[in-house]
């Protein structure tokens, strides 16, 4: 599901995944001598930036201690790919969608709708960026530039993380996602596998005897 840091009960009801819980599980498995390898079974369209770099770092740190694999039979996109890209080996089912290396920050401008309804919103704030995006107001040019800068900075961090573990061309990191076969051609995944069971067999053969 959607990846969030400490999602509330409503978000959990609709399938949200807690990145903190996953990070703790990865750390636990990495430090457990009885665990020979780690497999991340991923099916997520992505989620919030909060908690994602930390989870990705936990996966990268686990790689230093034992083999880490990732597999998706559904979606491994955006924040989910950020995390999965840090594994040693990534597999995807042929119908899976992989990638979406980009950052999205939607801001809804309802100022005209408010005006037509006879509602005027005034914001009293200290600092020209404080209050950006308050419902019923329009962004200033400075606020737009500031928000875009933040998006660009996060995108650069995302791409740097991917490049640290995979050879992916810049043209494949423009926010698009690919079918698994094309993701393989672009270097986003290591190979294809029809099922999780198939991946588990490969792991056991290579590492667990």
Beta-strand fraction estimate = 5-15%
Q: What is the β-strand count?
A: 9
Discrete helix count: 8
> What is the helix content?
40-55%
Walk across the major sheet and give the strand order.
3-4-6-9
Low-confidence stretches: none
Major sheet description = 4 strands, parallel
| C-alpha-based Rg, rounded | 20 Å
Coarse morphology? elongated
SSE string = EHEHEHEEHEEHHEHEH
For the record, give the distance between the C-alpha atoms at the N and C termini, rounded to a whole number. 33 Å
Overall mean pLDDT stands at 95
Structural class: alpha/beta
Topology record:
Blueprint: E1 3-4, H1 9-13, E2 17-18, H2 19-31, E3 38-41, H3 52-63, E4 68-72, E5 75-77, H4 79-84, E6 89-92, E7 97-99, H5 111-116, H6 141-163, E8 177-179, H7 180-185, E9 191-192, H8 196-208
Parallel strand pairs: 1-2, 3-4, 4-6, 5-7, 6-9
Antiparallel strand pairs: 7-8
Helix pairs in contact: 2-3
């Amino acid at each position: 599901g959607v990846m969030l840091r400490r999602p509330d009960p409503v978000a959990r009801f609709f399938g949200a995944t807690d990145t903190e819980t996953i990070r703790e599980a990865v750390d636990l498995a990495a430090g457990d001598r009885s665990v020979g390898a780690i497999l991340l079974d991923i099916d997520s369209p992505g989620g919030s930036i909060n908690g994602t770099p930390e989870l990705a770092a936990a996966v990268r740190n686990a790689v230093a201690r034992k083999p880490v694999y990732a597999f998706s039979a559904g979606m491994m996109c955006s924040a989910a790919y950020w995390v999965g890209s840090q594994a040693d080996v990534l597999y995807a089912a042929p119908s899976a969608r992989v990638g979406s290396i980009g950052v999205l920050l939607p801001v809804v401008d309802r100022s005209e709708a408010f005006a037509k309804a006879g509602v005027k919103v005034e914001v009293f704030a200290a600092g020209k960026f404080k209050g950006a995006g308050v419902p019923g107001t329009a962004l200033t040019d400075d606020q737009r530039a500031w928000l875009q800068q933040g998006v660009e900075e996060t995108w650069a961090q995302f791409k740097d993380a991917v490049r640290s573990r995979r050879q992916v061309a810049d043209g494949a990191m423009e926010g698009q996602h690919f079918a698994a076969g094309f993701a393989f051609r672009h270097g986003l995944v290591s190979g294809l596998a029809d099922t999780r069971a198939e991946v588990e067999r490969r792991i056991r053969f290579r590492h667990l005897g």
